[in-house]
Amino acid sequence: MRISHEAIYQALYVQGRGALRRELSACLRTGRALRVPRARVRQRGKSFITPEVMISQRPAEAADRAVHVPGAGVKNGPALAGRGAKAFRDAIAKKIRMLPSQLRRSLTWDQGAELAQHAQLRIDTGLEVYFCDPQSPWQRGTNENTNGLLRQYFPKGTDISRYSVRQLDAVAITLNSRPRKTLGWRTPAEALNQIMRRKSASRSASSAGF
After folding, report:
1. pTM for the full model?
2. 10 and 50: one domain?
3. Element (H, E) at 2
4. Closest C-alpha among 178, 176, 188, 169 to residue 91
5. In total, how many domains does the chain have?
6. Within a domain: residue 73?
């Protein structure tokens, strides 16, 4: 027999008249007890996104997902399309500058208003920014999975400004120490260290004339 995930979802949610029972929802990692119909979450493309920054234009080498960086966000603060977008841009720029230059290549985002200032982010950091197609979270699967993991520490609607940089970095370290199937069950930290060692060895060989 075969059964789709959609059939399982329908069976679970129908029992609770569209919502899971309290004892079931308490076991969910996401804590999402209500299921939102797809039609309700559909949104039109944002006006700040142009064809040249779509994911289809991203270099093929970006698909290896070798680099993982901690996220930053603004919730329950100023409107994300205004001052909130600027704060978000500044936070991303600060973290990106901490990476070695060879790893500051590109960032792939969904079409959220928090990155409305992506053009200025590119100017400030030299980072190429791309966007997924609407309703296509699978195009950035690792990011979506990481977002789900982050919800364990920062539920939806959390005001991130209440946390110190040390607290945010502690969460990033925890997640970067978690093995990933896409990395051959290495942790992101291990994968990054391996890349850095290879690059260091390559530079040493070049300087030695090999």
Report:
1. 0.61
2. no
3. none
4. 169
5. 2
6. yes
The letter for the amino acid at 129 is V
51 and 3 in a common domain: no
Domain contains 132: yes
Q: 149 with 189: CB under 8 angstroms?
A: no
Structure confidence by residue, pLDDT tens digits, 119-172: 999 999 988 999 888 878 788 888 888 888 998 899 888 888 899 989 999 999
Instruction: Give the 3-state secondary structure of residue 111.
Output: coil
Element (H, E) at 169: helix 165-176
**CB within 8 Å of 29: residues ≥ 6 apart:** 148, 149, 151, 152
pLDDT in tens, 59-84: 776 766 555 644 444 443 444 445 67
Q: Which two tokens stand for residue 159?
A: 């005001």
Q: Are residues 110 and 136 in the same domain?
A: yes
Going by C-alpha positions, the residue among 41, 35, 33, 9 that lies closest to residue 136 is 41
